[in-house]
Amino acid sequence: MSAADLARLQFALTTSFHFLFVLLTLGLVTLLVIMQTRFAITGAPVHERMTRFWGRIYVINYALGIVTGIVMEFQFGLNWSGLATYAGDVFGAPLAMETLIAFFLESTFLGLWIFGWGKLNRWVHLALLYLTALTAYASAFWIMAANGFLQHPVGYRIDGNVLRLDDFSALLTNPTFNSALMHVIFASITAGGVFMTGVSAYHFIKRTPEIEFFQRSMRLGVITTALATPSLLGAGFAQFPIIAQYQPGKHSAAPWIGAPLGFMIMIGMTLAAVSWLTLPFLFGTVILRMRPLLYLMVIGIPLPFTAAIFGWMFREVGRQPWLVYGLLKTEDAVSHVDASQILLSLIVFTSLFILLTVVDWALIARAVRRGPDVAPAPVSPLVVTL
Predict the structure, then answer these.
(1) What is the pLDDT of residue 239?
(2) Alpha-carbon separation of residue 70 from 48, 289, 295 (angstroms)
(3) Could you give the CA distance from residue 174 to residue 145 in angstroms, rounded to a whole number?
(4) 162-171, long-range: CB within 8 Å, 24+ apart, which pairs?
(5) For the chain, how long is the longest CA-to-CA vector?
(6) Residue 157 DSSP symbol
(7) What's the pLDDT tens digit per position in 72-89?
(8) 3-state SS of 311-331?
(9) Which regions of 142-257 does DSSP assign to beta strands (E)?
(10) Per-residue model confidence as pLDDT tens digits over 324-362
(11) What does the alpha-carbon distance between residue 13 and residue 347 come to, in Å, rounded to a whole number?
């Protein structure tokens, strides 16, 4: 394989791994906002316990996801110096905003939320979670703005052999950015809803004594999925005319992914149909006796993540051979590094991402099996690992 092929493979693998963390992080923080808001209004202990239990899983995934994000950022300097040289003035602006938000604001608000349990006013503590969620979505906003520029470059002027930022507002009104952002948001909320549903079903299969706790959790997960998946499908279909207008060759550039793309759409439709059909069984104890359905809920946890990866691959592979569509080819953006060195970094980076993913899911699985605490406990992931 050439240096360009190896660099593309490395970025595809590490971005896909990182994207899985992002989906669950955005989905869970949205559901946490709902749970803690209900606790702040009602003061019901069950809502506090739900926030703590699901919050612990969220913090584990967030912490490991931050590490994967840092590692992924190294690739721009290592393998894609041509992109930084040619379009760094434009492409780097939204990335800089994302870095400031994700690594400073979001982490700060989350840290205050974690250590603020029992120490801060209930409404102040809730406000910290709202700020954490808002900055999480802001981080996704700027990442998609940067990616939208790669898909359909706008807001630039050519200055010699490089691009200069000429109109920052054009980056924010880019049609390939706005449509994709909504798709990612609803994909994340769907992933969070399906995950919460599956975990709750797992506890029912294990005949948990926490009936009310996981009834409420499953109800929230299924209702979230039922509301998010139609919007997810709508946002996905809304991108087709935009792709046809700005990247007319995308489908022919990635014909091999046509079947997985259809599978992705089928997953979304299935999740929408099943979640709506499940709604009538959530009020009461009928769902506890529907064990085949409970097993399907557990098995269904990977489905939204699989669909998201297929969609992301279609978006990225389909613009080849362009890295910045119509302006900079992928082969011209690769750093002048020997293929053997890129192969070494591919092995190291991929191994590290696999390790982080295994650790993440092992810790999450341990927290899931442990179940909710009877008495209030910290949400710090350190507690889970002791």
Answers:
(1) 87
(2) 32, 45, 36
(3) 8
(4) 162/85, 162/86, 162/87, 162/88, 162/89, 163/86, 163/87, 163/89, 163/90, 163/324, 163/327, 164/89, 164/90, 165/89, 165/90, 165/93, 168/93, 171/90, 171/93, 171/94, 171/145
(5) 70
(6) E
(7) 777 777 788 888 889 888
(8) HHHHHHHCCCCEEECCCEEHH
(9) 156-159, 162-165
(10) 998 999 888 888 888 888 888 889 888 888 898 899 999
(11) 11
- Tell which residue, 80, 146, 107, 27, has the closest CA to residue 331: 80
Pull the structure tokens for residue 194.
């399906």
**Residue 42 near residue 16 (C-beta atoms within 8 A):** no
Residue type, 77: G
Take residue 167 and report the two structure tokens written for it.
């109109």
The span from the first CA to the last CA of the chain, in angstroms, equals 44
One-letter amino acid of 332: D
Q: Tokens in use for 216?
A: 């409420």
Please give the full DSSP string across 72-105, using - where no structure is assigned: HHHHHHHH-HHHHHHHHHHHHHHHHHHHHIIIII
Residue 130 to residue 109: CA distance in whole angstroms: 9
> What is the structure's pLDDT at 50?
95
Average pLDDT over residues 297-305: 93
- Going from the C-alpha of 144 to that of each of 175, 187, 248, 270, 352, the distances in angstroms are 11, 14, 20, 27, 25
Inter-residue contact 355 to 73 (CB < 8 Å): no
The pTM of this model reads 0.90
Angle (CA) 59 60 66, round 5°:
85
Q: What angle do CA 24, 300, 19 make, to 5 degrees?
A: 30
Residue 21: both structure tokens together: 């963390």
